[in-house]
């Protein structure tokens, strides 16, 4: 049977109880066994004035259709809290952590950003975790970041540190606003550097377009060619 929730609105609980009682007494007088699950739902629907459960379910409002937003029409993210704003300031335009925050509340938020670099569907070795964290920060202390991710239950590991996994976690509103702002900063940083790189590549292609080396002529078959004559003329 469908597990879709069905809310009941009972205008008069006393009248509903009496109608349900009459239905149960009628069944009992007829010698019928106690109603099963579906039959009891039908009795409840009839006590509410409906023909059966299906007619009651037909009156259930359809779930609202979620609109598909264009990128420019997306609702703005929630404003950053003071802690989230301080956490965002610990990252550069490429999304890398540039310093370890002093406050625990800011550390916790910064670790959520590092948590997004991992895939919850795979198992990591310690070396792979270290490589990801080295790329995600700039000040050379991946061991602390790895340990804190485990302490905050964002990563889990075996006792011998041979395997690491990303733990499923539900971010609160403060964390979600930070992650949205961090992604926006990283996109802006990538957009700012992309034109320069593209222009440089195009310039390199233009500068080397007419500089291809000429193909070497194949050596003739047979006797080797005679050496060039000396500029001093023939020997006397």
Structure commentary:
The structure is a single chain. The chain has 236 residues and is mainly α. The chain is 46% helix and 3% strand. It is built from 8 helices and 2 strands, in the order αααααααββα. It has a two-stranded antiparallel ribbon. β1 (155-157) and β2 form a beta hairpin.
Outline:
With 236 residues, the protein is mainly alpha-helical. 46% of the residues lie in helices and 3% in strands.
Written as H for each helix and E for each strand, in order along the chain, the element string is HHHHHHHEEH
Please give the radius of gyration in angstroms. Answer: 37 Å
Instruction: Report the count of strand segments.
Output: 2
Percent of sequence in beta strands = under 5%
Number of helices: 8
Mean pLDDT: 79
Strand order of the largest sheet: 1-2
Q: Note the gap between the termini.
A: 116 Å
Please state the overall shape, judged from the principal axes of the Cα atoms.
elongated
List keywords for this structure.
mainly alpha, disordered C terminus, two-stranded antiparallel sheet, 8 helices, 236 residues
Give the helices and strands, then pairings:
Elements: H1 13-29, H2 37-47, H3 53-58, H4 82-88, H5 104-115, H6 126-136, H7 142-151, E1 155-157, E2 164-166, H8 173-207
Antiparallel strand pairs: 1-2
Helix pairs in contact: 1-2, 4-5, 4-8, 6-7
